[in-house]
Amino acid sequence: MNKIVPDDGSYREFQQGIRKKVEDIIDGKVVTICMACVTIWVLFGDDIRTLSAENKDNDYIFFITYEICLSLFLIEIFMNSIFIPGYKFSFFFWLDVVATISLLPDIPGIRDPFLALFNYKLYDSDAHFDTSPVRNTTKLDYTSRGIQTIRYIRLVRIVKLYKYFTKSTENEEEENESQIDKMDPEYLGKNLSDVTTRRVIIGVLLMLLLLPLLQPGTVDNAPYFGLQTLFWTGRSGCNDPTGFGCGITTSNYVSNEGWYYMIDWYANASYPLLWLYIPDMLNGGVIGNVSRGLTWTEVSDCAGKKVPSACDKRDEEMELVTYTPIECYNKSVKGCEEIEAFARFDVGEHSRSQSRGNIVITVFVGIILATASVAFAYDTQKIVIKPVTRMHSVIKSLAEDPLKMAEEVTQIDIKESILEETINKIGTLLQMSFGLKGSEIMSSLFSEPEMNLIKLGSKERSVIALCTVQDFPSIIDCLQEEVLVFINKIARIVHTCTTRWSGTACNNDLGIFTITWPETKASDALVSLIKISAELHRATDIMAYKSNPKIVTKFGDNYLVDIAMAAHIGWIIQGPLGSNIKVAPGYISPSIDLCKKLIMAVEEFKVPLLLTGEFYSSLEEKGQNACRRIGNVMIQELEAFMGLYTFDLTDEVPLPDHRRVAEGQFDIDKRKPGDPIILNEIDIEDLEFTPEHLFLFDNDIVMMQRSVPTQFQGVFAKGLEAFEAGNWADAKQILDEALKIKVADGPCISMQEFMEACGMKPPEGWSGSRNL
């Protein structure tokens, strides 16, 4: 008889047909629902057994169901490995393997023979004379928690439920996989959501498995020490002088009633006592069963060295406590091989409590994982899939028809996507690049439909100040690449103090900071400049440059950051400068040029801060009182005279109220206008804090003003008056007196050097002013 063998194509189609049918059965609703019910049963079955079964003889029914569930899990793994493409060694393959292994500890017929290979029994309540008599320790506590952790492995089965509940969705995706672009946003988003959910599930389960081992150990040794006390108390009644532990005392430790009381106390100390095997003080200290106390009686069905079969307690519901004297355990004394005390307790309620807790934990974890899965899917859909899909659609439409751009873009809600974060970052970078004023300039430029650089700028009066680091070219030469770190540390202080006192940092050009304030904020500007000087001489990261080898080589050991500052009030033109290739906010004004001239004159007048008369006249009264006039200058470009003023700054500044806790951290005054003034912890309610009050109460300003002797001001004013009047001989004598009061005063020395350079005779046509 000839055997008919189909050709290769037909046989392959036959195989694929069989595979498809088996795959449809495995992924069908019947099998899926059945296996989901099996998984739910093995999640809660053992706890239900502990809680519901009144007699341990009914446990075999549960164990049979566990064996059936184990068989179904093995069959499922085997069939999926053969007929489901890509299943073998995949995420769900290993998940099923672990879930199946986690079922083994619940089946005694498999668990106990395996543990017997290691001479270990998970639950054993029988008394053996070779049982270790050592009390509970942290090591034993970790062992018990390790066993509990093994039971928690069954929570891995929760992930199997996730697999069953998401199986239909996966099947639909696999059917459409050939038709979906792998780079499609929706496809990528779903994969991202699925992978994230899996990672979260595994992370939560690992945390639950490891958490019992990471918690600090707690040990209850009350049953052990109580048994030890009962042993020696009972042995005190021994009347055999040759027996172990006998003859230590001639009388019993306690009375008969006290003996019964001790037994009652021990029976109710931890768990209910079932059986007690100790020396009986009332029976000559003979070791045996003690069946009663005043109120406690032995549970005869669960008494004895070997638990009777009539005992209705499971092995896991009983705990055996053992005590053996160390001499007997070490066998250093003969004749006491079987001198050992036992106590068996009923821990059934504790086991049932653990089962109830396990059920709650399982349900809670299931809810958490389900919620996390839904939340991640929703967030991915909202934050990634939806906006990116629409963006993808817009770009695709633009590629096909650019005229659709306006219509499609208006439908995109940027706030619903991660694009908002990206745009915010770009906006932050632009704000940091342009600053507050620059952002306003650029905003007005780009607010128009078409960028137009051919337009007028805006003109306004402002307080204008320049701060520059002296010898900056030499510092660049010394620090090289490190100069950026140096200048940024200074910029942090300059920008912080400026912003705190209502100013705006406009520009930074090779260590020259251009700062502006509203015209009415002259007092704020002066406070800000004083604070900048104080913080630069106080900041730890700036002071550290005193020991920088590169700086020491050039400037010596006593280097301090030397800054020059100048302030004026005038108009300024601001607007965008550049072209369509490169544009930046620009600030143009003769007032800026005047401030640059004043910066150059700092060395001539020998003060770090120069203020123009117009700036001085805009100060509040207390601010004006804190400044001093140092002379008049002639501005040739303006063909006008201008008074110059200064605030006496010092290198020695007080520490802030709170000392620095990190390198480079500095404090500035946190008070706002309108806050009550607090002086020496006394609240002055009738005064409100304004920048003007800082000239009376601020620690930096007050300490700097104290550095100028009171009598110096009058002497210097007389010397300046004689200098401007042309009485230089008198001026020289007065200024000498002033220098005795305030040594090395810069303006005094500057006037003396100017007079000496002119031969102590005023120039022809002397008007009391020097050329700037």
TrEMBL record:
<keyword id="KW-0812">Transmembrane</keyword>
<feature type="transmembrane region" description="Helical">
    <location>
        <begin position="359"/>
        <end position="378"/>
    </location>
</feature>
<dbReference type="InterPro" id="IPR029787">
    <property type="entry name" value="Nucleotide_cyclase"/>
</dbReference>
<feature type="transmembrane region" description="Helical">
    <location>
        <begin position="60"/>
        <end position="79"/>
    </location>
</feature>
<keyword id="KW-1133">Transmembrane helix</keyword>
<protein>
    <recommendedName>
        <fullName>Guanylate cyclase domain-containing protein</fullName>
    </recommendedName>
</protein>
<keyword id="KW-0472">Membrane</keyword>
<feature type="transmembrane region" description="Helical">
    <location>
        <begin position="196"/>
        <end position="214"/>
    </location>
</feature>
<feature type="transmembrane region" description="Helical">
    <location>
        <begin position="26"/>
        <end position="44"/>
    </location>
</feature>
